[in-house]
Amino acid sequence: MKTYKLLSADGTTVISKTPGSLGGNSKARIYGRLDCSAAKGALSKGYAEHRVFFANEQDAIHAGYRPCGRCMVSRYKEWKSGPEGKEDYPWKQLPK
Asked: Locate the Ada DNA repair metal-binding domain: which residues (predicted)?
């Protein structure tokens, strides 16, 4: 049976029978869709060694990752606008 390594919300690796629904870059701490053109383009530049996978968006957010600006445009804009005046801003990593 095939298994998958996923990054959990607390940052530990878990073995799953189900593949992750999102990918991420552990160096840049960005998460996005598995079909993201930016991520696919970066694979030939060594991105694969920093690639992680998440079961869902909540795990990615709780692990301290932010959304990709290319494949998750609306979530990226929400993250980029910052937590000011928002009760439920979920991201730990704040925009600069």
From this structure: 24-71
